[in-house]
Amino acid sequence: MNEIIKLSIQEDNLSSHILHTKDEILKPQTQDYSIPPRFDITKIVILPVNPSKFYTYWFIKEDLKKQLENKTLRIKLFVENQEVLDIPVSNTDGELYLYYHAPFKEVFCILCYIENGECVEIAKSNIFIAPSDIISQDKEEVWYNKAKKETTTKPSIYTEEDFIKYGFYTTKKHLDQTPTSK
User: Which residues of 19-41 are buried (b: 16+ CB within 10 A; e: fewer)?
Assistant: First the structure.
């Protein structure tokens, strides 16, 4: 089989072929890696999908799961440190999409349960600024080249006439609006 591979490489010098310098083409995997069935930590994570949609997932340590068996867990979404959503969840590990329009706002969530009328926090997520919901009207675009680790600017592909023609324009009043649920 190695001879067939070597012959096919010699037939043409296309860049899509991998050139091997040694006779060893494939090495068998000698070390086994085991992936744990679950991580024994308590954590909640929230990620932006767009300015109105956020993906969250959570998992809870086994010993804490046993303590929470008769409790109803809740996910609370906070925008600019104000609670805007309170959603009951029935399981101790899970994932959920949260919908709330909050462009340019600081967003995070907590996993908790209610006891004696008080919210008992189990875990707090990461904090991030929700993405923009408008197209920039800047005359230049900033581009980042990951391979070279450098930033460059290019002229914008949109002109001022495009913003008027296609309704891409916005005002400062729009940017300062309080977030509202969709």
Answer: eeeeeeeeeeeeeeeeeeeeeee
